[in-house]
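Dear colleagues,

For the upcoming journal club I promised to circulate an example of a predicted protein-ligand complex. I picked one with 7TS because it came up in last month's discussion. The inputs are reproduced below in full, followed by the predicted structure.
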Amino acid sequence: MNKIEQLRKQFPILSREVNNRPLVYFDNAATTQKPEAVIERLRNYYESENSNIHRGAHFLSQMATDAYEQARKTTASFINALHPHEVVFTRGTTESINLVAHSFCKKFLKPGDEILISAMEHHSNIVPWQIACQEHQANLKVIPIDRKGELIISEYHKLLNEKTRLVAVTHVSNALGTINPVKEIIEAAHRKDIPVLVDGAQATPHMPVDVQALDCDFYCFSGHKMYGPMGIGVLYGKEKWLEQIPPYQSGGEMIKDVSFGKTTYNDLPFKFEAGTPNVAGVLGLEAAINFISETGHDTISSHETDLLQYALEGLKNFDGIRFIGTPEHRAGVISFLLGDIHPYDAGTILDKLGIAVRTGHHCVQPVLDYYNIPGTIRISFAVYNTRQEVDTFIKGLATVREMFG
Ligand code: 7TS
């Protein structure tokens, strides 16, 4: 049995059938499936460790607190953060971005300032900035993309100016698969003392991320897109920023002292973790990180690159395919249209064949407006996918074409 077949055995859901066919799961950019180790970790926590953290002197509370803080250290080393307290646990990328859009902008965004995002952002890296700009009478500016689905970097340089307060860009596009040159983007912003937030939702499952090497100011990602549980995510922030910006939510845990006259806030990272946190989610995320580390980034990226090339080759020769996004540096995401067939119709037929793909706007409506299309069919890979599944998918597309073409 080869390494990938062994890996597949760790994912119970992959052996199920959908519509009487073996499941082919190609919707990994939406969420990945979970290995046994992650499922077991959640189960074990609730079965024998469950307790609230940072408050009880009793045995279980101490145990859960230690496990939670150990998971913070594991997460910090996964992205090579300088300090564990630069890792704030959130519900996911969306909440991480909202936290920065709220707290950073409250402190630093002034009327007439600008926030710079890109034309390929997920809605969750657009709308929070739009709202912040409205609240603070600031302006949202957008780095354009070209037909290949790459950022036009020369335009980025022109857009950076003394009014720019923050740049927020995605590391990897969920719709086009583009891997953006974030290091170059960060260097250029820093030359003008502008901080940069990176949306890493589609990067952490597929490639090693080193926040110190990138020198990003904020980095956001979700557990559920990298083999971990839903409802848990991370905001990495440089200590100097997290120290300066005000809390996002308030309540228990984020305070030092409370009286009716005045409250002082807790130290990092607790200042940003109001209320009872998702302890099981954090422990499940740690198990997911361990799964990625044990599998190895080399194995993950070489296998996913192989699948990407194999699928692109197969699709290239398929009549009527129009790729949406043909970037040079890309992750395992392919968006396309098939003749005049509506993506939804294609998705429905593929589903009948047990093949899960995403169809629609993928929460990137401005990208679709740019290409002047209503949606795409999108396939996205994880380490457990196989060439054989790509073959099944391409055969499925032939059925779609027979029915609608
Ligand atoms: N940023 C990017 C680049 C994403 O792809 C997504 C989710 C998010 C942010 C939001 O992440 P969340 O975990 O907070 O929801 N992307 C997708 C997708 O492509 N299909 O479903 C969700």
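Two points we might discuss: The chain has two domains: 2-26+296-403, 39-293. The mean pLDDT is 97.

See you all on Thursday,
B. R.
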